[in-house]
Amino acid sequence: MKTTKDIKSETLNSFDFLITDLRRQHREIASQHITLESRIRSSSQIRDEIESEIETLDLNEEARRAFISFSEICTTPSCGMFLVSSDSYGKSLLYLKDQMKDLEAVTVANIQQAEALQTKMTWLEAQIADLSAKRGIAEREAGIEMFIEAISKIASELFELELEKGQQQKYKSQEGKHLELLNRREAVQNELESLGKTREQSPDVMRFKLALAEKMARWLDILNSKNISREIQIDSDLKPILGSEKLGIIKGSSKARTVLAFHAALFEICTGNPISPFRTLVFDTPRQQEIHSEDLDAYIKELKVVALKNNAQIIFSTTSYRFEIDPATDEEWLPKFGGFEQPMYLGYINNTLDS
């Protein structure tokens, strides 16, 4: 049996441990709260600057309209003198309003998170005060029942706090994913803009075209392609030009190999980017008279190497060609229903090949 003194000492140590832990949590949350308040103030300042820019644009537009009203400057309503200025005003105003909308969304999220942190800080302060008071009582009375009751209550509250902490962590994770998606959207928009004819010589586009041409030549070699030039250029519509021949004038087996090489090269580039969402290639194999089985086999095996390396997936259908299946990485779907000439993938349940 423990003496009363030992029980009292353990009780006080337990209170001290809990109070210290709650104060540590309070300091961490207070630091996060200060950071969020700083972000909110910065967002407010940026919003004021954007509103100032919008007011400046409005003043410029009013001045433009005033100039148009002077017949000495613009003799006809359709003179077009201020057409570019009007278009620029509209685009700039739309861009600034989009910025305002994004900024307001981020600010609202930060305010909500700051309010949640403030609520948690208030709760922690109340818990610290309550524990400090109970510690004083325990120190005076050294009551075992009070200790057990306090520990049970604190354990329950800490459990609830851990649940809330888990929810906060999930929120932060979702917020991080949201920011990542916003960055990816901006990158995609920049790429789409760079594909326009006015920015055809963008360094990113040039690098992409060069990589696509080089990888397409490699895949033509894998397919054992004969009579197809390896001097490949990619035009502004991202269509290949092989030597002096465009894809539309290539016929027969050469065209089938060229199309396969182009798709494989594009698939390899897309899956090589870890953040690219395009990770699946679906196609139907060419007819046997268009490409030899050994060439197609080399092509499929190299595609599998790319898929395993870049965490991607390839789905293809075939009639005569047979691929050697690896149960660890591959899956084969065979037709399960009887047909007039050959097995079918769709049919009646009572007409399966197993029945």
Task: Write up what this structure looks like.
The radius of gyration is 35 Å and the shape is flat. It folds into two domains: 191 residues, Orthogonal Bundle (Helix Hairpins), CATH 1.10.287; 122 residues, Rossmann fold (3-Layer(aba) Sandwich). α6 links the parallel β4 and β5. α1 runs parallel beside α3 and α4 packs across α5. The model has no long low-confidence stretch (mean pLDDT 79). Helix content is 66%, strand content 5%. It has 355 residues and is mainly alpha-helical. It has a three-stranded antiparallel sheet, with helices on one face. It has a two-stranded parallel ribbon with strand order 4-5.
- Helix count equals 6
Overall mean pLDDT stands at 79
N-end to C-end Cα span: 75 Å
The CATH class designation of the largest domain is Mainly Alpha
Strand residues, percent: 5-15%
The poorly predicted ranges are none
Which percent range fits the helix content? 55-70%
Task: Quickly give the CATH architecture of the largest domain.
Answer: Orthogonal Bundle
Radius of gyration: 35 Å
Number of domains: 2
Instruction: Tell me the structural class.
Output: mainly alpha
